[in-house]
Write a structure and sequence with these properties.
The complex is a heterodimer. Chain A is an alpha/beta fold. Chain A is built from 31 helices and 17 strands. In chain A, the strands form four sheets. In chain A, strands 1, 2, 3, 4, 5, 6, 7, 8 and 9 form a nine-stranded mixed beta sheet that branches. A three-stranded antiparallel beta sheet of chain A has the order 11-14-13. Chain A has a three-stranded antiparallel beta sheet with strand order 15-17-16. In chain B, strand 11 and strand 12 form a beta hairpin. The chains are: A alpha/beta, B alpha+beta.
């Protein structure tokens, strides 16, 4: 797989297979910022004394960083914010005891010994199930740079070589004696000769890792990498449902996971504790944070919108209050060739309930370890420096000529807000807009780093039909290569508008046999081989099982759709009147219509707002004309070129299917009276599932809880009662009669 | 120097300031740092404690810390360049009228050097321009030296009659561009130098007040009062040269405000001549509930409303005992916590200042000639004690300097009290001498900039005030911002970025920042003053974002008007504008300080649209 050469990419699996996992897990690991500090006995006394007194000005003394989890807990419990909240609540029950319980339940217990244990286990697992795990060397160098460490050399051998028996013994001693005498070995970790390093006010960088969330593996992988590369282990925000995992959840806790409830906005006490807990990490910078901005594992394997802002908001508030001088966000894209729990995802989307997290389920999943999950590629985006981003944002807002704010609508300046009191709605309009833009930018940057695996192309090919998927559809290898070229290679120049960082993971030299073997071995539950060497789906005949299988294909196809979305809307719109030509104005209207319709379905370069004039429209139109897919008839009318119908239908098929699925959803009996979205989704899904047709892609798509929720959210976006009928009208007009016609003809 | 007449005093400052003071830098002509033949830095003259002393470690500090080099010598020009001095705009009818009515009693001048001296303050930009020949786009066209309140009244009425622009001039120590003449001012500009209004009119020993003319400078005032056993206790760092009128016009703050108060606490009565006549209260009652206090828009008006001519000020008997002191802390955080505690207990000495680690180390570099073996041995033992036994980290340590005043008893009690608190915060008393050194350093700082400029190093200071809970964050963030901004602007060498907490209040503190940068090998084509300005602006933005004030005592001038709306709200600026509009509709006091210039026109435009 040619593009992943060892100069740009570090393959940790390859390296680990060459050395002992046990020795690796016991290697010397030290915090790059704090380990080197010297503490004489006298100064330790000083610290203790300091911590008692200094609370007036700074609750935490720099010398006790990094704090252990107990200290963090007590810092939160002793915080002024919590004190104030408890005073506000002032009810009979013992609020402080409640707070203690909450923090006990929430807190992580990050320690290196557990991390080593987990590193050992997962080194075994990863080596077993993954062929390669690729990490971009550049991105690690960036993080090293943030920590003012020397970047790793580009030679492939370094991290494996220092693992010798003696250093391991030393590490073992260290692990159990807890003394920080490791400095003798630390000395080789030279700090960059930056003049800034020696000064105390140059504090540790406040880093927040923001990975995509597709699988449970996501919880482990970053900690694993940090351990591998000797950078501080992050604290990971996890949902409280994981507490059901018992032993494993405890292990996760010891590796830095902290557990928060799914929704607690109305619970002031919980909210205060959560806010303080996050902030204390950010403010003191002893641990980086990691959280999943999508809020949950995205079962559809594409970005889960709208993004969750809660965590980011608390972090940003520290910056707005200037308790920290900068905040560094690193969006991360974790690309799995095969997602560990793709079966579960498909089932859940079809409303088959997620099994409760339990130990037995965990042991069952050990079966999984016997399979191969192909390659994993972790890509780090360029760090976003909040200070620069916010300055830039403010400058752009100044230039905007819009509304001067109402003088009677006072917004309290940050400078006069008390810093120690937790305010749920402390953000002013500017800051909120920044947060919106930033959070969207994060998912956008994650998605820019997409990897297109062979399965994505295969899914594209299999699902290439507007409505019905023939039961015995089979695809030849040659077709896959043709489709890959049609979809991605030929269209590179428009895809690059969205991202120049996406990559196609494909057998080198277009080796057909290799590709076939790969697909069959990794996705043995999906594909089988027909007599003429064609791939075929393993259909069982069971309605739900088959639907789940197709859903899985849809999921893998989803991983690339955002790259194509906007350019394809033009083709899609052209198809509307494929009998006759379409005017420029109409084309543009449809184009904008699609952008808004799929606002929650696909990630764009920016979140669509009302009355947008998309800057890419003309560009894409010219592109398709140049490519001869669209014919420029005269002045301002366009027509689709029927010679390329096959290619066009391939490219547009997923979007057409989504649009038709939306139409199907909008055609359901109007039950908009229910206000709770999640209940509403369940009602819709129940209705649609009863009519589920396992041959019909649209029926399957429309039964997906995620598609239903996105479709309903789009209604809320325009927030008018007429929206539904309008959308229905538009979609009917576009899709009902003509294009079915067209397919029939083909 | 005349001594005739009642209230006449020995004045330090001559009519033509450039005779005594440097035209191209800070302070007295005879006092400057220079590289002596031995290659060491020495301070000349005989006016200061440091005068005639060699500072053996200073050069090394400059070389090591700032990467300066003695090869990069960039001296100032010797004389202002006459070609740079713009032709004066003269209003002949005013001049004839002036000569016929006041010509005999009020000195005036249109001399190039006088004009140049009255057209600038002491920001880096201004000094930079002076050192390159004095290329200012606009200078005052005339300078007049009134002697009495009535002279000022006459000058102002003549100015109104002939539509002349007046700019009051006190000590000329402004660091806000307040004395820079507006470039687009087409009228004749007359600088009204108050230095001849320097008399103490009377002492009221029953009420402990004094009626003083506004042009008196700090050192003269204290000296004259001391002769009678009194003092005002107002000692801003610029007290050698700054004037009472200037203090009032900028809301000055003195080092010893903990005992004596800031200018607003010291002033009992102010007389100001405006375009429409003289404004003053008719009563000396110590506190009055007579609507918004008119003193409070005179104080801080920065010369745009009128000329302060006479002030009644509180005086105090001279303290019986004056004692310096110093404390070293293991780190800045402990120091701030200690200051906060002292402020909380309202037991601050007359002055308490906390230097950060950078300044603490810099202070070591300013030590004078080695005083023999024994002395340095003692120093070394002290150092060992603090770093090894007490566990202080030399790169984190910082120091506070203290000044106690009062009766001997009070001083001793207060001293013990303060040191006891300090001990709780791991502070160790470090002796009187260090305290005294610290305070003399205050007067040296401005001289130091001049030698820096000689070797391609620029420096500036700025100040702010901030609530207690933000002090540490603000100091850290601003210092860091200066460094990162320098990197961004392509400054090759790490700058010196340092701060000190100079005043404590019940609810916050005043913080002073120093920023020194070596502009050698700047990115090609960038102008050091411009780079420096960008860094300073970024630092000010950072201060504001950290909840610091726009200024604690320097004022707004023209350098900070772009932030004033943000600082006091649109309506606040509007209110100031309407006061200005009422008192001075034709903008006679046209220095354009305080109120952002563009406000009016854009507001009108918007209204029309």
């Amino acid at each position: 797989m040619s593009i992943f050469n060892s100069i740009e990419y570090d393959d940790i699996i390859y390296r680990h297979r060459q050395s002992s996992d046990l020795l690796w897990s016991l290697k010397t690991w030290h915090h790059p910022l704090f380990d080197n500090k010297e503490q004489s006995i006298k100064s330790k006394q000083l610290i203790n004394k300091n911590t008692q007194i200094l609370s007036i000005i700074t609750p935490v003394h720099y010398k006790i960083l990094p704090r252990n989890s107990e200290q963090i807990k007590s810092d939160v419990l002793n915080s002024l914010a919590l004190k104030y909240t408890i005073e506000t609540l002032n009810n009979e029950t013992n609020t402080y005891e409640q707070a203690k319980t909450i923090i006990q339940e929430m807190s992580h217990r990050l320690n290196l010994r557990s991390a080593r244990f987990l590193a050992f286990i997962f080194a075994k697992i990863f080596n077993q199930v993954y062929e390669n795990i690729y990490i971009e060397r550049n991105s690690i160098d960036y993080i090293y740079h943030l920590y003012c460490l020397k970047p790793i050399n580009s030679s492939t051998t370094i991290p494996s070589s220092p693992i010798t028996i003696s250093s391991t013994l030393f590490a073992i001693l260290n692990t159990f004696s807890r003394s920080s005498s490791s400095s003798s070995i630390n000395s080789d970790r030279n700090l960059l000769p930056s003049p800034l390093i020696t000064k105390h006010y140059i504090t540790s960088p406040r880093i927040i890792y923001l990975p995509t969330h597709r699988s449970y593996m996501d919880f482990i992988i970053l900690t694993y990498l940090c351990f591998e590369y000797n950078i501080p282990l992050p604290c990971i925000a996890a949902a409280q449902d994981f507490l059901g995992l018992g032993l494993l959840s405890n292990l996760l806790r010891h590796c830095g996971a902290f557990f928060i409830r799914r929704s607690f906005r109305t619970d002031l006490l919980y909210w205060t504790i959560f806010d303080e807990y996050v902030k204390t990490h950010v403010i003191h910078g002893d641990y980086p944070l990691e959280f999943f901005i999508e809020g949950a594992r995205s079962r559809t394997l594409k970005t889960l919108l709208p993004v969750r802002q809660g965590m980011l908001k608390s972090c940003l508030e520290c910056y707005f209050h200037r308790q920290i001088d900068n905040l560094i966000l690193i969006p991360i894209s974790i690309n799995y060739e095969k997602v560990l729990e793709d079966n579960l995802h498909a089932n859940e989307l079809l409303g088959i309930p997620k099994p409760k997290e339990s130990k037995s389920g965990l042991f069952k999943s050990i079966q999984i370890l016997k399979k191969s999950f192909g390659t994993m590629i972790v890509k780090f985006s360029q760090p976003i420096h909040i200070h620069d981003a916010y300055e830039l944002f403010k400058k752009r807002q100044e230039n905007k000529p819009n509304s001067r704010c109402d003088t009677f609508d006072r917004c309290i300046p940050r400078g006069i807000q008390p810093r120690s009191i937790c305010q749920q709605d402390g953000f002013n309009e500017l800051e909120q807009n920044f947060l919106n833009e930033l959070s969207y930018r994060i998912v956008n940057e994650q998605q820019c780093l997409t990897i297109i695996y062979p399965i994505t192309v295969t899914a594209f090919s299999f699902l290439n039909s507007s409505v019905v998927m023939p039961k015995n559809r089979s695809i030849s290898m040659e077709q896959l290569f043709i489709d890959k070229n049609t979809l991605f290679i030929e269209n590179t120049s428009v895809i690059e508008d969205f991202s120049t960082h996406y990559q196609i993971f494909w057998p080198s030299n277009d080796d057909k046999n290799n590709l076939k073997q790969r697909l069959l071995s990794i996705y043995s539950d999906v594909f089988e081989l027909t007599g003429n060497n064609h791939l075929k789906l393993k259909m069982t005949g069971d309605r739900l099982v088959d639907a789940a299988l197709i859903m899985k294909m849809i999921m893998y196809r989803n991983t690339c759709l955002h790259l194509l979305a906007k350019p394809v809307y033009i083709l899609l719109a052209c198809q509307v009147n494929s009998q006759s030509s379409i005017s420029y104005k109409q084309l543009k209207t449809y184009y904008n219509f699609f952008i808004h319709l799929f606002a929650y379905e696909f990630v764009y370069d920016q979140f669509p707002v009302d009355n947008i004039d998309d800057k890419y429209f003309n560009k894409y139109l010219t592109y398709w004309i140049k490519k001869n897919y669209i014919l420029h008839i005269n002045n301002s009318t366009y027509e689709i070129n029927k010679n390329f119908l096959e290619q066009i239908l391939l490219i547009t098929s997923p979007f057409e299917q989504y649009a038709r699925a939306y139409l199907l959803i909008y055609e359901q009996e109007n039950i908009l009276t229910e206000n709770n979205l999640s209940i509403l989704i369940k009602i819709y899904q129940k209705n649609l599932l009863t009519k589920l047709d396992s041959q019909n892609i649209i029926s399957i798509l429309a039964s997906s809880s995620n598609v239903i929720s996105n479709a309903l959210r789009t209604l809320n976006l325009s927030n008018t009662s007429t929206a539904l009928s309008q959308l229905r009208y538009m979609l009917t007009k576009i899709f009902q009669p003509i294009s079915i016609h067209l397919r029939a003809k083909l | 120097m005349s001594t005739e007449g009642k209230g006449e005093i020995t004045t330090t400052i001559p009519l033509h300031r450039q005779e005594l003071l440097k035209w191209e830098g800070w302070g007295y002509r005879d006092s400057r740092f220079f590289l002596n033949p031995n290659g060491l830095i020495e301070f000349s003259g005989s006016r200061y404690l440091l005068s005639g002393h060699v500072l053996p470690r200073l050069k090394d500090w400059m070389l090591n810390k700032l990467n300066a080099s003695t090869d990069n010598y960039s001296p100032s020009v010797a004389e202002p360049n006459p070609d740079y001095i713009p032709e004066p705009i003269l209003n002949n009818s005013f001049i004839t009228d002036f000569q016929s009515t006041l010509g005999t009693t009020v000195p005036y001048s249109s001399d190039m050097n006088d004009r140049l001296f009255h057209g600038h303050g002491h920001t880096l930009e201004e000094i930079w321009k002076l050192r390159h020949g004095g290329k200012f786009d606009r200078l005052p066209d005339w300078v007049v030296w009134p002697r009495h309140h009535s002279d000022v009244e006459k000058i102002v009425s003549l100015a109104v009659k002939h539509n002349i622009c007046l700019i009051p001039f006190g000590g000329g120590t402004s660091v806000t561009w307040a004395l820079i003449c507006p470039v687009d001012e087409k009228r004749m500009i007359v600088s009204v130098d108050t230095s001849q209004m320097n008399k103490i009119l009377y002492l009221d020993e029953k009420n402990l007040t004094a009626r003083i003319q506004s042009g008196i400078i700090g050192q003269d005032l204290e000296r004259e009062l001391a002769k009678k056993g009194y003092c005002t206790g107002h000692e801003p760092d610029s007290m050698e040269f700054s004037s009472l009128g200037g203090w009032v016009a900028t809301r000055a703050s003195g080092m010893k405000k903990n005992i004596y108060g800031n200018i607003e606490d010291l002033v009992v009565h102010i007389t100001m001549v405006t375009v429409k006549g003289t404004i003053e209260k008719s009563c000396l009652g110590p506190r009055q509930s007579t609507g918004p206090d008119i003193h409070h828009f005179i104080m801080g008006s920065e010369g745009i409303l009128g000329i302060v001519t006479e002030v009644t000020m509180k005086i105090r008997p001279l303290p019986a005992c004056k004692k310096y002191g110093s404390i070293v802390f293991p780190d800045f955080e402990s120091g701030v916590a200690c200051l906060r505690e002292i402020a909380r207990l309202r037991s601050a000495p007359a002055s308490i200042r906390l230097l950060d680690n950078e300044q603490f180390l810099f202070g070591q570099a300013l030590a004078t000639d080695n005083k023999g073996m024994l002395h340095s041995l003692v120093d070394n033992i002290k150092k060992l004690y603090i770093t090894k036994i007490k566990g202080f980290d030399i790169n984190r340590m910082c120091a506070a300097t203290l000044l106690f005043e009062g009766t001997t008893n009070e001083v001793n009690q207060r001293e013990k009290f303060v040191y006891d608190i300090a001990q709780k915060y791991n502070g160790i008393p470090a002796g009187e001498e260090n305290g005294l050194k610290g305070y003399t350093l205050t007067f040296m700082i401005a001289y130091l900039r001049d030698i820096g400029l000689d070797y391609r190093i620029v420096a500036e200071s700025f100040e702010t005030s901030v609530p207690w809970d933000r002090v540490i964050d603000l100091c850290r963030n601003v210092k860091k911002r200066i460094i990162t901004e320098c990197e961004k602007q392509g400054v090759k060498y790490p700058p010196f970025s340092s701060c000190r907490v100079t005043q404590t209040y019940d609810a916050g503190a005043c913080v002073y920042f120093y920023f020194v940068m070596n502009y050698n090998n700047l990115r090609h084509g960038s102008d050091p003053v411009h780079v420096y300005e960008l860094v300073e602006q970024a630092a000010r933005d950072e201060v504001l974002a950290n909840g610091g004030s726009l200024s604690h005592h320097h004022g707004i001038g023209k350098i900070r008007t772009k932030w004033i709306k943000q600082a006091v709200s649109d309506l606040g600026v509007g209110t100031m504008m309407s006061i200005k509009q009422y008192l001075d509709p034709n903008n006679i006091f046209g220095s354009k300080n305080l109120i952002p210039e563009s406000t009016e026109s854009t507001e009108h435009l918007k209204a029309k649209l």
